[in-house]
Predict the 3D structure of the following.
Amino acid sequence: MLSRCLITSSLSFLFLLLESHPLKILSSWTCACASLFRSRHPSPSHSPVQPPRLSSLKEKMSPAPEPGNAEESQGGAPSLLDLPELALEYILEKLPPEGLLSMSGVCTALRDRCRSDYFWDKHMKRKWDRVIGPSAYKVWQLCLAPRRDNGDSNQGKQKGLLRLFSLVWPCSWAGERINIGQDQTCSLPYDSSVMSWYIALETGRFWFPAQVYNRENGHAGFLLSCYDAELSYDFRTDTFRARYPPHGRRAMALETGVTWERLRSPQVDTSPHDLHLSDCLKDLCPGDHVEIQWRRNKEFPYGWWYGVVGHLESCNRNESYCRCSSSGAVVLEFNQYSAGSPWSRTTIDRRNHREEGNEVDGFYGGIRKLRTDDEISAWKRLWPTELLE
């Protein structure tokens, strides 16, 4: 009974320490192991012990000996794996992605733990959740499928990984750039794990579908719009490269330096070339914030444009007598344009809305009602400093 109480108290004290300084405790534990090892196996020379330096990615990720072999070579010195299960899991949860990646190269037991989806899911959601949607995941699975069919051997997976990263994996996490050549071994997983997907995104080798506000560096013709594009992350600048599909006879446009606040995941599962089927027309009232598809002509894909529902010209805008919400016509106002602009106002049919417009003013497509403050504030942050003509 007394021993059980002592174990419980010790674990509680360990969790309290890890709660405040998890990485410092981990470092202290490593130093203690090293000191114990040196005391049992003194060096023949009396030269001072040099501090350990960062090993190369090849050394980190090459196959490591089994835990049992490591303990035997060190004369039974204590290791991180001697910690209680909950304590070890708590430490791994506190590690950043680069820490998990480095720890996975220590030994086989830690490799399997550190590559678990349980730990990487949190890092994935924390950094990528806002810009990665279901469409991006589908593309990732399509990228994996043909390489899975090439063979199930580890060698085949390794070659597939090297092809995926074009034989070069820029690793900024450890403060140095590491090149992976054909003569080097790499045991990184190439599979459907979250860790594999995270690395593909982080290195910028995976282009994923998303949407960009104010495309082409805020070109005046695209202000307060959101267009589909393919994105690739640039870890050096913490920005993105965007590839926009051809518009009519225009070639594919490439934009660099796209910041995080200009990105979002696609809000609907509708191709930019297809009309979105609106499900909110009956509920639209003056003052509602909306997005509507618009394209210049039939050859262009749709972009999403921000607007608000306005009042009919016959309405006196008195809330007590306003009947605009029961009318068959819905007025949409785009207040970023001056009052005389042909794009400042349009009217659509509430009961039978399809694509409406012409070759002069463009074509209006499906409508989404914005239902959260976050969606509305994202548009308002991009409001132009001057009214557009």
In short: The chain is about 35% helix and 15% strand.
